[in-house]
## 1
Amino acid sequence: MSRHALCLSLLLGAAMPMSAMAQTAAAPAAAVDPAPLLTEWTGPYNGVPPWNQVKPAMFPAAFEQAMANARKEFAAIRDNPAAPTFANTIEAQEKSGEQMSRLFAVWGVYQSNLASPEVQAIAREWSPKLSAFFSELSLDPKMFARVKAVYDNRASAGLNAQQMRLLERSYRDYVTSGALLDEAQKTKVKAINQALAKAYTDFGSKVLKDEETAILVTSEAELAGLPDSFKASLAEEAKAMGKTGWAIKNTRSSVQPLLMYGTNRDLRRRVYTAFINRGDNGDANDTNATIAEILKLRQERAVILGFKTHAHFRMDDTMAETPENAMKLMMAVWPAAVARVKQEVADMQAVADKEGAKITIEPWDYRFYAEKVRKAKYDLDESEVKPYLELNNMVDAMFWSANRLYGLEFKENTGTIPVFEPNVRTFEVRREGKIVGIFYLDNFARAGKRSGAWATSYRGASGLTGETIRLGSNNNNFTKGAAGEPTLISVDDASTLFHEFGHAIHGFLTNVYYPGLSGTPRDFVEYPSQVNENWLLTREVLDRFAKHYKTGEPMPQALVDKIEASSTFNQGFDTVEYLSSAIVDIKLHDRTTPVTDPDAFERDTLNALGMPKEIVMRHRLPQFNHLFSSDAYSAGYYSYLWSETMDADTWALFEEKGVWDKATADKFRETLLSTGNETDRKAAYRAFRGRDPDVKALFKRRGFPTE
């Protein structure tokens, strides 16, 4: 895949959801010199992004110039009078597009981490234009004729295995983009891609506007049960809004702790209701019509491209291969998960009845009473654990683990290179004495930053380009401790930290010759990150890094034992919350008639599944950024479960050999982490494990019956 094709995939397919600030969008400022966005990066480490020189107003002119330059590069390859060869066509494309790649690396950060009103306005204007540009390249008939000529003669071209795989995948990318269509069909696909780009931007903007709202509490009594550190962060949020009191932002990082600890049931209900109704309030930010338009356009495009449904189109190059295979795995897990939820609800109802609460467990009660059950069953309270999980210590823990497993060394160099936000930390990454990367860590929530957690690559490495220093980032949304106070995180937050760092590890270890073979299928992407979560609660990590933020004492063995004993606690909730979202995603996109009423479809599908009334989807459709802020996870949210099946089976091997076993870690790195997509990922897994993954490991991990 050329860098031009990569940028197109980032715009329409592989990019994580875009975001925009929840304010009235301002008009872009007058154009300024875009040079910082167009010139080669300078400074140490083979050059780094010049964040300190970038202004949003530079992007329009930069887009114009970068597109003009890219067209010239493209034309030089396309119009080469020499007969098409792998070197002058496929390899030439692999070497092209560096300027556009640099520009998109910076633009992606502005969309996701720094989405000011000005950025939002630029995104609305330019997303369709950029889509049209990349469609122009991917549907160019003369370039495709060159690629096809090389492809048709591949058997006699003397290509090695990597070159053959790159050629076949490049040809396939052109075909699935529409290269074989007639001109009328190509024109239609271009128009659809432009319309989708606009719709994705609109969706992300509307959701973020709802997430920027907050419920203001003026009486501290209403916050009964909340930890002091969390209340202090809510007070800081109110202060930032120019208000007096405590502000509960409509984001998961603020909502979840309140639902877990808040004793005020009415406040829990109000906060929960606002959260699950993001994008679904019948106002200017309602996303249902936008979703219906996206679904219509996606299905229309899929049919033109020769696919039965959008799900078949998106899954054409995945490990699962078909929607049916993904559904088979999910429905194998679903009954056991629902059965576990019934047990969990019964346990919670018993606690509520014993306390004389005179309630029936509702969705806004689930986390609150789950904590009570945890305390009763395991004598474990989440609030006991958080004082030992100080954020900086957990960052040190993930670095230490990566060093012990893979020989990666992280040395902080914050302040020596530019960053895009003052709280971003940076680290030099070495392996075997050589610098292999720079790691940017953006941990805290703020206005203009989209919700969730994600990893980003600003620059990869490859043998073809000679680039050896990778630039990557992790982006989280932790609630920062009050002024002068440490940031304490939950076990779930710490798992997220390790999860995203697994993506970073994967990036820093990837060692391929061709850039187009560095990316992996969507349902493999989450596998390395999910595996990395397992080392968080190992005894060695907890002993060294889980230290009380006041006393410095390590986590007591008794507390560790409680955590281990409760490892399968609440797995019904966790599984159903996620799996319902993934099943609805597939059902939504695996149909020839597009859904026109997303709310009704969601409700009817969940009823047919037997969704427990005490739980809501982790991401309801009106706020499902994974699906509707890009093509990224559309018909692909199942991939977390697909990846976890491999993850659980992999961890079973580490447990068998020793969780820090060097030989196993080396084989994992050499076979799966470093090879990108140079070989089929199913075959690579078999080479590592000696067989296909065993789903029983997943059932065992979640505490479900394995028979």
Note: The mean pLDDT is 94.
## 2
Amino acid sequence: MTAEIPEHAKTEPIDPRQRPYDLPVLVAETGARDGWQAAAAVVERHWDAFASQSPRHLLAALKALPGEAFVNMPSLSVAANYLQHVVIDGEPRRFFHDGRLTPSPDPEASATLDTLILLTGKAAADRTAGRLEEGRRTVLEAKAVLDRIDSAGRSEYVTSLPHLRFQWGRTLDAADAAGAIAEYEEAYDLARLTGQPVIARRAAGHIAWSHADRGRLNDADLWLARAQAEPGANGRYDAILFLTSALLKQDRQDHTAEMELGRALGLPLGEQWAAALWVSALLAHGRPGASSVDARLERELDRHPEVHLGGADARYVKAARARLARVRPRLRQQVALLSTGTALDPLLDASHAYLEGRFADALAHSEEARNLTAAPRVEAPALLLASASHHALGHVPTAAELFGSANAIIRQERMFSAYSFIPARTLGLLAQHAGEPIHGRTHTAGEDATLPKLTKREQQILGLLASGLSTQQIAAELYISPNTLKSAMRDLYRKLGVNSRAAAVQRAKRAELSHAREH
């Protein structure tokens, strides 16, 4: 028996939160009465709202289209395939491109929305299958098709372009290729122009992440605020916003970073799995926290084999391992083996050489890293490592000058996390030689930063509290019940003299910094 559609729903947009099941019925009725083009127009009109709120019913609406719609618009097959992947489990690896849908190479036939959608689907498929260079080339091909369409022709596609350009940005972003932010910005502007808040929010969120990833924290602040201002909040896509917030707070030594990470981990991560592991590693406290993140990393690599990793995911995995290797030395060899082809490689080589006392090598690697990029996330620590290496070699004036340059970047972006690349004692000496302050101190002189004596179980709990895992997940990690964990947490808080998870994590981090200064 078919649901009866209210008369107003046949002319007004259907609300996916109220009666999503009306859409497939309306599409079928429209197709039978007015033909496939009118039915396809109904799908197009509801795409943005349903793709984010009710993809299952949107998929059902596509399947309700007359068969001739798929003959005349083969891109609908790509759209149905994409929605099928979203409905199954949101896993990018489920998305594939049917090679039979490759568009005609004829330039005149290519300049159509159908061709743009087909190329975009192929680029997304290449991206999620790990064929990053092929995906990048496909995006360039799609952009060339768009360039051949004049402004009058583009106006017919204006509601579709935000989605297409967002996917182009995602593909370039995944490949660590130039141009991703420009595509996101185009998607954001067009989405706002056409009243599509969901895609505007997603585009702004990815711009914010891209800036935060590179250490341009002030730009990230701006775009994160723009994303949060858009009314299209949706749990399916908002993990990137919480990851960005967590990274910004981590860089600025804000103890609420763990809460933001926890919010991200509670949402579908999809293609952000590697980025989430990197942020988790940055926030992991002590050996228990590092062990938990390392275990998650190994589970993810079972699903995303390391031999197929490339682009941004390879960079995030290497950065996560480098962070975890501080307390899990067995990971150091794996860090060295994974090459990303980015400035991260010589930066980590510089850090490793400095710690081994190979100061000339550290200088060479830090210079190589700075020659590859001027991104603050690389430039500031590379300058600090060069400063510390010159100091170790007795070149005090040069060390002081380089420290001043690094400190200017850190001050401007408030990226205090960069200081962690050199030992605290050396950091203090360099600041003294340069006559510069160390920004972002997390506690005042004279404050007792040491921890009371904790049991092994309490140490494990404290480490896991900083990992961003929920209490249920921490209980599962420790093989205890949630109630037992809550009781243990109350005892731990009492010992630490705090009354919240965030305060407990901050207390632990102060103790860790104090220990580093003494050594």
Note: The chain has a mean pLDDT of 83.
## 3
Amino acid sequence: MSKKLGWIIWGLSASCLSVPVLASALPSSLGTNGIDALKLHQAPYNLLGRKIAIGQVEIGRPGMFGWDKAVSKNRAISLAAVFLRNEPAKSNSGVDSHAYNVAGVMVSQDKAFPGVAPEARLYSSAVGSTKNMGQPEECLSAQHIALQNGGDVRAINFSFGEPLSRDPRTDAVLDGNALLTLCIDWSSRVHNILYAIAGNQGKGGIPIPTDNFNGMNVAFSSRRGNFYNKVDVSNLAGPNYGATARLAGKEFNIDGRPSVSLVAPGSNIPMLNPDGKLNKVTGTSFAAPQVTATVALLQEFADQQLRKNQPNWSLDARRQQVMKAVLLNSADKIADKGDGLHLGMTRTLIDKQNQDWLDSDAYQDPKIPLDSQMGTGHLNAYRAYQQFSAGQWKPSQTVPAKGWDYGTVNVGSTVDYMLAEPLKQGSFVNITLNWHRLVELNDTNKNQKYDLGEQFSDRGFNNLDLYLVRSDDDNPYVGAVCSSVSEIDNVEHIFCPVPDTGNYKIRVQFREQVNEATQTYGLAWWSVTQSASPE
């Protein structure tokens, strides 16, 4: 996770490259050149993450004003609480500049360098840097953060990880069975939290827990000109690229499952250090917290809608699967030409080989939902707001061109979402479906919490498929216009052009049962109707 400047503490490493810089007019990763979050800070949106709890787990922790001398002259970051694993942090102990920079990406209140969600409530836990700290203590720390704010924490950031060399399993590989990986997938479901995980980068990196299923792994982009639109060369490419295939299981998932969910800015990000001096930082460590904090902005909006009893809003808006679907489905892939046919996307993202989404295996092959380098594309907080604000729509009624749902499907059954208006020929449709891998805690003492020494059981994930079909077609195998039918992932994603103007429906199919006979899921869609004006 670092650009060849790894921060390694007894084998644990976190991505960080920090370079002093003058306070010049650096392009902000939060503006239109980056994730376009600053727009949401302003009227009429006024979203700052107020009253939304998010979390941070790292080796060290950010300094807290009034508690730690390291930040005695710097009040830019306000923290809800700081911990050492599952205990209150000791004053002036475990304070770390990397953790401070990561926290700043999320909640900095500095006027020149604000965080994505400056009013969010950030809870931070340091795992500690002694040799005997490992995945069990990291899991304990994550659980402790998940239980803060009365158990209402919406997202947790991981800007660190574990090398396979420290995994106690014999011949350990990235198969989703490391204890920390299982812990994250368990906590995602049990605590209803979206985990944003800094993606692996560099050689001999920190791949655990990037083999998770229920979280989101974040790669980082760099600027071409002033625009963040290229996957940085430091990110590890997928196993299909030449010599990197030999690293399958070591730096990539063993079964070829893509390791990247989303891309966010992470190159030369201007940040304040604990002493108030300005630095530029680089790495996936600073991309992941932009995803985490974007959740806080969206969740503030959701809570507003719920308080006002707005139609097409329910507590399902807080579901982790809904947030994941919304963020994945609203990502930028191909810049819109102004005609709205590419859903108003703001940039064309290219990978390390200078290829865009239309060149990718994910675009060509329905069995590959995510691009190995780009995931579904580049984070765009404002587009995520547009996707989310369209509201929840149930399959019992016709649905608009844009929306989301938290639904249920039974084994052997399908759920259809009939789009209310005809779609425009040549326009693109974006649809994302995700559901949980079922990981259960072997709760030896029956206290419903993870304790050191306990283990998890992987019950796998059911196989769901996703289709766009013509409204009068009941056989998706024959008449599907587009499909996503991965056999090795719990995400399906469609990005495809509409062949003919006409009526269509979205179909969720429960193809194969692996654990339970009923499966919950998060779904988001974005399309262009025949009568629509450009976004």
Note: Residues 1-16, 19-26 have pLDDT under 50 and may be disordered.
## 4
Amino acid sequence: MKTKNIFVLGLMTIGTIGLTGCSDSFLEVENPAADPIDQYYKTDAHIQEALVAAYDPLHWPDWGNGSYSPLNICSDIMADDVNPGGATASDMLNWQLMANYQADANNTLPSLWVDEYSGVKRSNDVIKYVDDALAAGNTDITEANANKYKAQARVLRAYYYTNLWKFWGNIPYFEVNLSGNYLGTQYKADEVYDMIIKDLEGAIALNALPMKAEGGQEGRVTKAMAYMLYTELAMYQNDASRYATALKYMQEIINSGSYELYGDFAALWDEANEWCSESIFEVNYNDDNHARGWSSPIAVGGTVLPRLMGPRGWTSGVAGVDLGWGFGTINTSTVALYTANDARLDGTCWNADAAATANGVQYEKAWGDTGYFLYKYLPRPANNKDAGWDVDLNFNNNYRIYRFSETLLNAAELLLRTNGSAATAAQYVNMVRKRAGVSELPTVTIDDILNERHLEFVGEGKRYWDLVRSGKAPQVLVANSAFNRTNGWTASKKYLPIPQGELSADPNLVQNNY
């Protein structure tokens, strides 16, 4: 796979932007001619290259631009399922402080800010190139393709902004790339939400996306992915005015026949079952002789997430598991939530102590060790055996963002919130429970659905946001010695401090009151 820089993009106060290829077949970028930017991006093929670049920052949060910011861990450590872990109480200090609601401008997620704004910038580029080509009367790009490219770019832009909005709330927002001093206008969180969801509505209205990606195109934005993002936005904002539309979108996915629950919950996380019937959107990672390394963190390749989340000092290959760095251990209180017959127990919580005893090995206990690790992203020797560069950074585990089980649980919750069919809501919840092998519920409440989400999505970056949007965070996220948590969550902790580097670059940015 070739990954050649097309050009060197300018610096922005919100991050330094580069350009590399992505990590799946449709994301391959050939080395183009060295034409000026305003001349190069005039053809359909060249605009597709810019679109490839807009997808690339999806891969960066695990480790790119200077620090580790995997979305699942960085969300869940602020909830009640996942410990920061690591070697000591100061290992990944920003995570330790975030988990204890003590983050500050120097201990937050600076790389994630850069990653997501890089995605915004590249998405804006695609939209401009398409509009410029059409304005110039370029017949090389059809109206259908123009709408398809713009729809993808606008959904990607909304996704990148959603991550920024959820973590920081009060952020700069722009749909035309900045120039001059590169200082953008900072908006209040509610204003940002309004702009994101209206842009997403515009992307959906283009009606240019398939419900499901065609074979070989997995990883591209689809209508189902856009619908899931819309629903995530509306539900996190508690925007009741959009619940009916969100419910319509969820039921459209359900009734499309394009997706269904995969029968074996634990097997969902195998490489063979990436992009299975349940998968709506994943970020593709690949270990096939790619070049991602410590000196090239945003190059094409795999992910470091499994290495982060495995047991420290583990004997590689024992129980089919590789060694890790001990981050993201699972709390015993979370393990206790599952009944013994729930398939999600073994498909979520891997008992390292039991495996060590059974195989006569030992491992190094992590900070705040519980003995349990996230099965979903365990490091396995088979998953980086083809890495042609640094094996730590090149596991081939795709990162799951949206699954069909979430579609069902979203629909169930929205039915109850819009006074829809309680029987249908229970049916959707019980589809998820049946797959897990647990008894069905005759009726369901909002709390039942939130509890089901808790069991279904441990370690997937959903729980913290569910607690915040439901108003349960102050009661659930309290000081707890079992979590090494000495502080409780308050409303002021909803948005992380803006990174100091951004404040220094833009004196007009107002720090969040954390």
Note: The chain has a mean pLDDT of 92.
